Amino acid sequence: MLRLIIQNGTNSGAQLHLEQGWLMLGRGEESVLRFVEPSVSTRHAIISTEQDEFFVLDQNSRNGTFLNGERIQTARLASGDVIELGPFGPRLHVVIDPRKQLDSDLSDAETSPQFGDTARLRSPQTAQWTIREAAQTIGLYNPDHDSGDSPPSASIAGLALFCGVMGIIVLALTFLNFGVTVSVIAGVTAFVPAAIYLGMFLWLDRYDPEPVRNLAFAFAWGAMVAIFVSGVVNELFKLTFEDDFLTSVISAPLVEEGSKAMGVLLIALLFRRDFDSVVDGIIYAGVVALGFATMENVGYYGDSLVKEGAPGLIGTFIVRGLFAPFSHVLFTCMTGIGIGIARETHTPVLRVVAPLIGYCVAMFLHALWNTLASFSAGVFWLGYLLLELPLFLGMICVIVVMVRREGRILKQMLATEVEKGLISREQLETAISVFRRSRWVLSAFGNREVFDARRQFLRAIAKLGLCQWHGARALAASGKTGSFSLIPKLRAEIFRLRDQIG
Fold first, then answer.
1. CA end-to-end span of the chain, whole Å?
2. What is the pLDDT of residues 271-296, one digit of tens each?
3. pTM more than 0.90
């Protein structure tokens, strides 16, 4: 148990006690003991406990929080420490029950990580247990894989410039090939349905939504870079071998899936803090593929409109826009799953092998699709109904199961935070409901600060629940996880955002 003995000020001599959970220090009503000193903010700092360790977290206070004379943002407490709320403000002497501290020290090597420790969950169990554990946690946010690093701004600017140049080239070639009118009609026909398909990915990713910046980059990479590279290489292959069939079953799967995979890999490397699970791999791969398919469809729709008029455009749209809009998505998601597994695993071999296997499966499915398309319409539709469609529906079912499981975990793990008053029951229900979540965020559209605060608030709630889940599993396995040190930070972030969400 932790005791805080106030050494000076209007509350001098008073004591605060904390055994589990957290307490607020400040001038506001949420503080268990309200301070009146001008150096203290309304919500100045939080004292939180996780696994018999205690942390102090500054709440962006005006005058800062000091530990033993040094200004801190977050720090672990030890018996004898002195917390100061602002310079020359109230001083709180920290006393930790020796028995509790001894228990914590003895178990530290197995259960309680040092502050900031991101060591992986270690278990004395067998390899079979490890495989089962991986299967049970696949697709869920894991703080051990969250580096927290932001990509270098120079890298982002360089990639944005590269995509922009590729985009200008692709658009210029499209206008030169079809003319302005046909290009606009084909573009609208291709891009309007793409927005609907994109909504499916946003729904699947509702608990830990990816930043719009990342999704825009993924779509742009597929629609601009991958489509340009694939078009050039496929054309060179066709000119070299003078065989359309070989181009469709060898060059197209190899080059198109390779160029799309490069976009997913770049996101995994540059945006590591946002790419932390198999579901994220599927989302990013799907958006890259959607961008590629959309721009590819512009070419097909424009060609049909020029050669066959409106009837040709409608027929091509029915085949490519309604019956087979997911073909590229299905292929590239195999690569995304492989890269997602590499992101989740701690096994060095899997980090290399999983993406390669995913890429090979993507190429195989792509080649199979193109091979079926080279036969008669009857053979193509038979393969479509018996193979391609069931594979896509199966992948969607797996993703939906993982997403629903995530919702159940959040509802269970965050129930204690509702009881403590960190979040309301209504906020929890909003966080786990796609419709309420979307309606709540969109209702702030037009107010950028509130809109962003609500998105960050919901994401912090989801991460808090999943961190608690990982922590509980670590304890059950006598292991350790970076979740323990992230929980106080996420609680602090939720406290900070509560005043900004409106």
1. 36
2. 877 787 788 888 899 999 999 999 99
3. no
